[in-house]
Amino acid sequence: MKNLYIFTLLLVSCQILNAQNKFSNYKTIKEIDVALEKCYNNADNTNLTSNCAYNASDAADKILNQLYKKVLGVVNPKFKPVLINSQRQWLNYKSNDAKLQEELYTASPGTMWIPTLAHRTYELIKERCEYLETILVRFE
Questions:
Q1: DSSP 92-133
Q2: Is the pLDDT reported for residue 86 higher than 90?
């Protein structure tokens, strides 16, 4: 089972590296969300579905970083240490959640857990982006 898991991860990783990220041109989470839904609708296997989610996560992560920098630039200086700490704690949460999801899904039969895990990562990033957007609106 563990060898299958490692092989599947390597296969998906290679496909992700070789695939052009069709999400990289989008500038908002809403645009990525729409594109992800279309990508899922066109994916006819687990690997393609995984690619959709991983590529969307990568693009969303770039937007997250941009939003974080914007928020840091507009908030009251007294708020910055709290924001920085919050972001660090969120990154820890995201990392720990990924470990938990990996353990849960690797205990399940089949490979469908791979796109499920990838989508979970995307949803966490999307949620954080939306939260940072609300902070940005308040301080701009």
A1: HHHHHHHHHHHHHHHTSSSSTHHHHHHHHHHHHHHHHHHHHH
A2: yes
